[in-house]
Write a structure and sequence with these properties.
This is Alternative ribosome rescue aminoacyl-tRNA hydrolase ArfB. Belongs to the prokaryotic/mitochondrial release factor family. The protein is an alpha+beta fold. It has a domain of 92 residues: Double Stranded RNA Binding Domain, CATH 3.30.160. The protein has five helices and three strands, in the order H-E-H-E-H-E-H-H. It has a three-stranded antiparallel sheet with strand order 1-2-3, with helices on one face. The longest helix is centred in the C-terminal third of the chain and has 21 residues. The N and C termini lie far apart (81 Å). 11% of the residues are buried.
Amino acid sequence: MDQGKIISELSFKAVRSSGAGGQNVNKVSSKVVLSFDLLNSKVLSDDEKLLLEQNLEPRLTNDKILILNCDEDRSQLKNKEIVIKRFLQIINQNLIVPKERKATKVPKSVIKKRIQNKRNLSEKKQNRRKPDF
């Protein structure tokens, strides 16, 4: 996956940030909303799209669009950088295919050791009993 090409497919929108901040909030559109259309992406292969669609299902809209917001900073440019970094991190994390787990057999030595420990514990408890005359 080429990061430069995928960034070119992103669309950004600047909106007014909510919350405290005085009159600056009413004047400046510093919040950045990133949207990425997963189905119409030309950078990702079909397998990558399918994998992302499965992994990001709760975060996608009905039209398979990923939307991220950032209003951490007062600067629109910094918010844009933050949201791009977050987007790339999410994409890279969800493109990783987990390795399949191979079932392994329990070694005979482990089974032998467990049975021996049970035997030892049993003998210890039998020795604690009152003698039967």
